[in-house]
Structures are given as structure tokens and as C-alpha cells.
Amino acid sequence: MTNTTGELQIDGVTKRFGPLKAIDRVTLRIPAGRFVTLLGPSGCGKTTLLRMIAGFYEPDEGAISLDGTRIDHLPPHQRSTAMVFQDYALFPHMTVRENIGYGLRLANVSRAEIERRVDTILDFMGLNGLGDRWPNQLSGGQQQRVALARALIIEPKVLLLDEPLSNLDANFRERMRWELRSLQQRLKITFLYVTHDQSEALAMSDWVAVMNAGRVEQWGTPREIYHAPRGAFVATFIGTANLREVRVMRRENGQAVIALAEHTISVPVSDSSSLGDKALLCVRPELITISRACQDESRVNLRGRVIRYAFLGHITRYWVEAAGEEWIIDQPDQGPSEQPYEGDVTLSFLPQQAHLITEA
Length: 360
Ligand SMILES: Nc1ncnc2c1ncn2[C@@H]1O[C@H](COP(=O)(O)OP(=O)(O)OP(=O)(O)O)[C@@H](O)[C@H]1O
Ligand SMILES: [Mg+2]
Description:
Blueprint: E1 8-17, E2 20-30, E3 35-39, H1 46-54, E4 61-66, E5 69-70, E6 81-84, H2 96-106, H3 111-124, H4 140-152, E7 158-162, H5 170-187, E8 190-195, H6 198-204, E9 207-212, E10 215-220, H7 222-227, H8 232-237, E11 242-252, E12 255-260, E13 263-268, E14 278-283, E15 289-291, E16 300-311, E17 315-322, E18 325-332, E19 344-349, E20 355-357
Parallel strand pairs: 3-8, 3-9, 6-7, 7-8
Antiparallel strand pairs: 1-2, 1-4, 4-5, 9-10, 11-12, 11-14, 12-13, 14-20, 15-19, 16-17, 16-19, 17-18
Helix pairs in contact: 2-3, 2-4
Bound molecules: adenosine-5'-triphosphate and magnesium ion.
Residues 17, 20, 22, 40, 42-48, 196 line the site of adenosine-5'-triphosphate.
């Protein structure tokens, strides 16, 4: 298993179910040997896209290639891909060993060779001693590892994972995130992971494709999609965003000069070519400071009034009315004696930490 192969190219792929376009002209290049996540709300087409890559659905239009070779007309077992399903889909009438060896039996690998490879992967996945159990004698996490072992034993170039953690409880889920991430880093094969959970996507991925209604809205690193969302959908689907419609007055040296309430401020723009008269200013709640007095002039200061707040343990979340709109601010908590802000306050943020969405 090396990381020089396993690059997926999806070119203008469309999939219809009757009148519904479940996938609408999706083009994506999934780099080899990376952990890539398809992130989007329920029904946006994530499973449909994964199933087309695995070979369980055929695209109506477009092409899917692996390392430069078209695979969209090949049967699933000839694609060098393997899929882990949300409910694991273990065969209940087969033992763990038989489940894991299944793909090799289909490929007519000799009995001795199957035994050897099943032993190796049982060991690799930390499943020693469980080979003769039935699936219903395993915990959820063990079943999940058997499902992974069954997929990995065929040595796929691309492993497709459809929400594999959604059946696990919160604590175990968090641990499995790191297990999957480190598994990918050990194997160095391409992982294409599907989830609707943004924190999972941010925590695990090298790259994220944010999907909505059958289309890819944005491709980027976790930090890019969080801090530089391309549109209002991505900004609000990933985390919480204060979005403000602003007037663009002029642009200069990669900056846009905008009007926000009575302030004129300069914010960075990555793509000034798409900049019109109006734009959306996106300020994340944790980048705003709340205080009693104005902060220094390098910051944008807005006078406001606390509407309500909620103590959430590690932070206090405030809702503040300022400049005629409601703002959400997250302040890290300072310990047991902290007094929350009430009444009149000042909000401030650094303009260079704000992000301008130009497609407003
Ligand atoms: N076999 C099918 N026949 C008809 N419609 C389908 C079929 N499979 C999926 N769809 C529809 O296509 C759209 C995309 O479905 P898909 O299962 O890909 O969404 P998803 O992003 O995986 O959602 P979830 O997060 O809920 O799993 C949905 O509107 C769904 O109802
Ligand atoms: Mg799905």
C-alpha cells in the first residue's frame, strides 16, 4: 500500500432519481493518500456520490477516474475501492473471520492465503481473539473495526466511508475519530469520508468538500472553509457566523473598503474580481471581544447592549444588539468568579480577521 496511487477524478457527474438531481454536475479531484471529507446536510447527495464511486450506482452524465483510468463502467469489485457502510452491514451468519475474508473468497484467493491475511489484519486492527465470534457478540466499536478490516483486506486504493461513526456514543465517537485518522496516516491510502457533522470534518480531514443540494459549494482545508467561506451557506453550515450585508465603497491593494454602520473599514479580499457593490461580512463569534469600554483604534468598535447570554462551560455565548443587528459573541470563560456582562457593552474585532464574502 503506497500513497502514490489512489487519485480520484470526478468530472461533471450528474445523477437523477426521476425529476430530482441528487448530484448535479459535480467535479472534484480527490488527491492520492489524503483524508478527504464530503460534508453536507442530510439529503445533499453524499451517499449517492459515494455509491457512484464504489460502483453501486451509475452516473447519468460525467466520468469517474482512478489514477487516470475510467472506472465508472466497471463492476464494484474491479475498481480498487472498498466501502464501509453506515450500519456496518456485517453478515450476521458469518463469523468475524468469515466476514473479513469474504472479499478475498470472492476473488478466489487460496484458503491458506486468506487465513494468513485475516490473521494479519485482525492483529493490525486490534481484533485479536475475536475471530470466531458472531457479529451480534461484538460491541458497536468492534463491529466497526470488523467492517473496516473487511474493507481494508482487499487492499483498496480508495476507502469510502459513509458516516461510519454515527451509531456510536459521543465519547467513543471522539476516540474513533483519532483511530480512523491515524489508520489513514499509517496506511497512506485515500480515505473519502462522508459526514454531516462539521466538527468531525474539521477534526479529521486534510481536505473538505462542502456539499449542498447535489453540488459542491466549496473545496478547501478545514481552516479555509471555516475562516474563508465562499458563500453564506458554507459560513452558516460550518460553525456560527455573524453575517452582515455591507456596502463596498472601493478596493485597494487586495483590501476592500466597506461601510458597516457608521464605520469605514478595510478588510482583506482574496478574489476582488467578483467584488460588486454589496458583500457579506463574516465575523466568527470567537473573534469578537466584549468589554465595557472601547478598545484601541486598530479594532472596529461597536456600541451595543446585551440581550441575553448562556454559560456553556468553556465559553459564555452572548447575544448583543449593536448597529441595529443581533451579534453572537463567544467569550472564553475565566473561571468561577467571572461576572457576565450585562447592559451596555462594546464589541470589537480586528478587521483583518473578518472575512468578506463577495458573492452577496
Ligand atoms: N434510490 C433512490 N431513489 C430515489 N431517490 C433517492 C435514492 N437515493 C437517494 N435519493 C434521494 O437523493 C437525494 C440525496 O440522497 P443521499 O442519500 O445521497 O443524501 P445524503 O447526503 O447521503 O443524506 P444523509 O446525510 O441523510 O445520509 C435525497 O433527496 C434522496 O431522497
Ligand atoms: Mg447518506
